[in-house]
Amino acid sequence: MGFFSRKKDDSSSNNSSNVSIAAKDLIPCTTMPRAPPDSYGRPDGVDPITSEQFKAYKIILAYFQNPDLKLALNTNDLDSGSNVETYIPLLSWEKFWLTRECFLRYLRANKWNTDQTIKHLKNTLCWRRETGLTHDPEQPDPMTADKVAIENETGKEIVLGFDKMRRPLFYMKNGRQNTEPSFRQVQHMIYMMESAVSMCPQGVEKVTVLVDFKLYKEPGIISDKAPPLSIARACLNVLQNHYPERLAKCILINAPWYISAFLKMMYPFLDPATKEKAIFDQPFEKHIEPEQLEALYNGRLDFTYKHDVYWPDMVKVTHDTRKQQYQRWVNFGGKVGLSEFDLKGDHEELKYPVDHDMTK
User: Fold this and answer.
1) Could you report the per-residue pLDDT of 194-248, keeping only the tens digit for each?
2) Alpha-carbon distance 124 to 327, whole Å?
3) In angstroms, how far is the first alpha carbon of the chain from the final one?
4) Cα gap 128→238, rounded to integer Å
């Protein structure tokens, strides 16, 4: 069967099982859970790497620790090498973003080629500047929740719950579309991906994406059409180029024939790693435990999206989470290459100094 082929209707292709969750077993839910259940466990520490990988890591670390390093304010100037007089040093929040795990994610994505990794990281840093994602309070044009709030008034994208590996669940509900195609839709996806990544607990780097194409007939919903190719390609470019090693898996359900055709058009733009992570026509409940899954998909979370409740809560929680981790970064010395294990923990002593040997 082709990657984007539709399966015949059977018990494995429905988005819910034949046995519904009893009302008395539902868990009332209006906002996103803050953390995965304790029963899912906690990490012991960072994963080791080989000596050769550690050498590559130290090359990247040294490059971005250079106090004389300056970068362009946008990717066009970086690529062309123009307007060098406007290049500026790394901001403190950019240094905070450059964690040990961030370097390793980009190294893995570039097959441990240090030159390609440096180029990739510089490109993303400039992209984050022009997109307004540095999170630095002095950034002139930040991407704020207010800029994209209208895009989520029907709850077409939410972060809700965690899978068994403690990874945040990022729902995309194409059938709840409420706006006409525009670049703001791309910005909205970026904002929500940033929010999902912010909710990754200690020891977790990836997000599980759940995509539902079912059309919902409700006030405010205007279209069940797939986004234009230009919007879809822009979203794919963002996820593949600027969130490498962040996608655990992407589960897609309820796709009608024209969506399958649309996805076939997108297939050439997917890198091999992304293709391997796509799962088509399997119910969400096969991958997510009921206590963490929305009741709409035969889970136990009795969730109805209310924009005036969910949205401000999500914005505050993700903002406060980033701020808390940033403060821990400052307290631990404010250096490039500090570990997310330390930044996301609650321990008082630094466990992984920048020069910590991570080899097996």
Assistant:
1) 999 999 999 999 999 999 988 888 888 886 566 677 888 888 889 999 999 999 9
2) 23
3) 41
4) 10
Q: What percent of the chain has pLDDT over 70?
A: 92
What 3-state DSSP class applies to 282? coil
Q: What is the DSSP string of 142-167?
A: ---HHHHGGGGTT-SEEEEEE-TTSP
pLDDT in tens, 240-273: 999 999 999 999 999 877 767 777 777 777 777 7
For tokens 């006030």, what's the residue?
A: 219
Q: Is the full-model pTM beyond 0.85?
A: yes
Q: CB of 252 within 8 A of CB of 211?
A: yes
d(CA 66, CA 122): 13
Sheet holding 157-162, edge to edge: 157-162, 168-173, 207-212, 247-253, 278-280
Amino acid identity of 45? G
Closest CA to 336 of 120, 89, 142, 113: 89
pLDDT at 274: 74
Q: How far apart are CA 300 and CA 25, in angstroms?
A: 7
Which one-letter amino acid corresponds to residue 82?
Answer: S
Three-state helix/strand/coil letters over 207-260: EEEEEECCCCCCCCCCECCCCCHHHHHHHHHHHHHHCCCCEEEEEEECCCHHHH
139 alpha-carbon distance from chain centroid: 22
The amino acid at 200: C
